[in-house]
Design a protein that fits this description.
- Its cofactor is Mg(2+); Mn(2+).
- One of its GO terms (biological process) is DNA repair.
- It holds the Pfam family Exo_endo_phos.
- This is Exodeoxyribonuclease-3.
- The structure is a single chain.
- By secondary structure, this protein is α+β, with helices and mostly antiparallel strands.
- The chain has a single domain, classed as Endonuclease/exonuclease/phosphatase (Deoxyribonuclease I, Chain A, 4-Layer Sandwich), CATH 3.60.10.10.
- The strands form 3 sheets. The protein has a 6-stranded mixed β-sheet with strand order 3-4-2-1-14-13. Strands 5-6-7-8-12-9 form a 6-stranded mixed β-sheet. It has a two-stranded antiparallel sheet with strand order 10-11.
- It binds one DNA strand of 18 nucleotides through helix 1.
DNA sequence: ATGCCCTAGCACCTAGGA
């Protein structure tokens, strides 16, 4: 089973690029971020016509996540549990950044699609929100680990895990994507026992999943690796390969992110 | 030191992105 995560940066601007990619790459499951659309505005029927089951968690204008799957999707949940409560109910839930579903094939696999807050400028309230969100993700990750089932958390983490994951790490020193607290929060989740799929298959620098639109970043290969797959041990047992489809960044009207893939023996 | 560029929206500027 081939599963890709892809921050498409707006479904309205990217529908042609998305359908071209689906036709060409034929993922069994596509985990999408930044659909920038409400659920009712998402082109569900056109994707269903391509053979995909479609589940979305959108909002107007920004954010928004979705899962497309050729196999049935069950037990869909929307939103990351644990939003700020105590009279401030739902404060952290106004942003549509998280969706889960179980893909039912030979093996049932729990798929968690996430769009982690950017957090800039840091420090500040947006950075505080990012770190709180990562705390909540840690709690959900603990539950997934305790379930001892094949599960993966995939998406745009907005985290550069290590210096070799940026072409110019010095440019990111004080950025919310690379600050020590951000990287530590990511490691805290990984260290529960998750496999970071890409790094279990590939070492070294020069592997990126995002290139800014500005200043010719793609042409200079000035990228960062911020889109990740974390696998529970039961899911890591199924891992055949993980790779980044960087060529997509060179297509017509591309997203600033590219698809990251896992191939699972399932 | 700043902006470069792109998307969406009660749209011809602004907010947000990373």
């Amino acid at each position: 089973m081939k599963i890709a995560t892809f921050n498409i940066n707006g479904i309205k601007a990217r529908m042609n690029a998305l359908t071209d990619w689906l036709d060409d790459a034929n993922p069994d499951v596509a985990i999408l971020q930044e659909i920038k659309s409400q659920d009712e505005g998402f082109p569900r029927e056109a994707l269903e016509d391509k053979g995909y089951n479609v589940e979305t968690h959108g909002q107007k204008g920004f954010n928004g996540v979705a899962i497309l799957s050729k196999l049935p999707l069950e037990d869909v949940t929307r939103g990351l549990p644990g939003a700020a409560g105590a009279g401030r109910e739902g404060v952290d839930d106004e942003e549509a950044r998280y969706i889960e579903a179980t893909v039912v094939g030979d093996v049932a696999i729990r798929i968690c699609g996430l769009y982690l807050p950017n957090g800039n400028p840091a420090p500040g309230p947006k950075y505080d929100y990012k770190l709180r969100w990562m705390d909540r993700l840690y709690t959900r990750a603990q539950e997934l680990m305790a379930a001892e089932m094949p599960a993966l958390m995939a998406g745009d983490y907005n985290i550069i895990p290590q210096p070799e994951d940026a072409a110019r790490p010095a440019d990111w020193t004080d950025d919310a994507l690379f600050r020590p607290e951000s990287r530590a929060a990511f490691r805290k989740i990984v260290n529960l026992g998750f496999t970071e799929a890409f790094r279990s298959c590939e070492t070294g620098d020069g592997h990126y999943s995002f290139w800014d639109y500005q200043a010719g970043a793609w042409e200079k290969n000035n990228g960062i690796r911020i889109d990740h797959f974390l696998l529970t041990p039961q899911c890591a047992d199924l891992l055949n390969n993980c790779w980044i489809e960087s060529a997509v960044r060179g297509r017509e009207r591309p997203s600033d992110h590219v698809p990251v893939w896992v191939d699972l023996a399932a």
